[in-house]
Design a protein that fits this description.
Layout: H1 3-13, E1 26-29, E2 38-42, H2 47-56, E3 60-63, H3 80-90, E4 94-97, H4 100-104, H5 109-116, E5 126-129, E6 132-134, E7 136-144, H6 145-155, E8 162-164, E9 170-180, H7 185-190, E10 195-199, H8 203-211, E11 215-218, H9 221-225, H10 228-239, E12 243-246
Length: 258
């Protein structure tokens, strides 16, 4: 199977045209008309990720966050992006990103969270058009917030969760958006959610939400999206050729809390 064919199959379930105008999902670097040897799935493309792909014999890297986001005016300077681009090209690696396209796709990163937590989705937190929107929300059997937080940490295999709100508060209606979700706090309030789960919440945003009656569970940006690796990795194992390597990344490599 050619890498082009493999990625075309992926785009049947996560169409590139779903991505936001400001995004850069899709091909980042590489020649698509080569045989797929192996796929490495990750959140971010780092130099360590490139090294691992080469060590594992993978010639395709699928990341959630695009390696190239803003315009690149030159390649070859003393910067990490240039080094990654040059290294990928020299070693015939293909790098592909599935960012907001995966956020918005049915069965994408937000739906996968609900599936993993065995919760039923009612609809989107923010609907952009019929059948398309950000996030997912639904109703669950009433439970104390602290018990739900423990279940999320265990099921999603994450730690360092921050709760803004009363841990004893009873939750029956909640929503989730992976990544930086502060801009959807208003939508969550309008839906009457008891708990909003996301990442990258600022102090004053959390305070305003709490005073309006909404609790927020901040998983952190990395933790709120790390299941992208399982979503795409599992699909690749079922539909690809060669080995599939899942790298969930270690947030402690660049962010430590003391």
């Amino acid at each position: 199977m050619l890498i082009r064919e493999f990625l075309s199959s992926l785009e049947e379930i996560i169409p590139l045209d779903l991505q936001e105008d400001w995004d850069n999902s899709g091909l980042q670097v590489g020649q698509l008309d080569q045989k797929l040897k192996g796929t490495l799935v990750c959140l971010d493309v780092t130099l360590d990720i490139l090294d691992q792909a080469l060590e594992e014999g993978c010639n395709l890297i699928i990341s959630h966050h695009p390696m190239i986001f803003s315009g690149v005016k030159s390649i070859g300077g003393p910067d990490a992006l240039s080094e990654k681009i040059i290294k990928a090209i020299k070693n015939d690696l293909v790098i592909y990103a599935s960012h907001t396209s995966c956020d918005l796709a049915d069965g994408g990163i937000n739906d996968y969270f609900f599936k993993k937590m065995q919760m039923d989705k009612i609809s989107y937190i923010s609907e952009l058009s019929p059948g398309l929107g950000y996030g997912a929300y639904g109703e669950i059997e009433a439970v104390a917030t602290k018990n739900l937080v423990k279940k999320i940490a265990s099921t999603m295999d994450i730690e360092g969760l921050i709760l803004y709100g009363d841990p004893e508060k009873i939750i029956s209606k909640l929503g989730f958006i992976g990544g930086s979700g502060a801009s959807f706090i208003g939508d969550s309030l309008n839906l009457g959610l008891d708990l909003y789960i996301t990442g990258d919440i600022k102090h004053h945003d959390a305070l305003d939400a709490m005073e309006a009656g909404l609790s927020i569970l901040d998983l952190g940006h990395h933790n709120s999206e790390r299941h992208f690796v399982d979503l795409i990795g599992d699909w690749a194992e079922e539909n690809g050729r060669g080995k599939v390597v899942k790298n969930h990344g270690d947030e402690k490599n660049f962010r430590n809390i003391f």
